[in-house]
Amino acid sequence: MTAAEALEKIYESLAADNAGLDDAIKDLKVALAAEGKKEAVVEPGRLAQNNRQGRKLMQSYFKKKGVTVVFAGA
User: Deepest of 16, 29, 40, 41, by most Cβ within 10 A of its Cβ?
Assistant: First the structure.
């Protein structure tokens, strides 16, 4: 699985009330490592809560899982 595919899986999970989110984060972490990337670039417009609080909550949760998140255009 590529990082882009893993991110798509995360977007789908977020749209489905976070169903399977932890597994999607694990997949993303593995894909990022395989591609030699250190952070995931997320499109803020695809988030359920595209506000500062929602973005910070996402960054915090992903960081606890070992994935650094940055937002496109930020």
Answer: 40
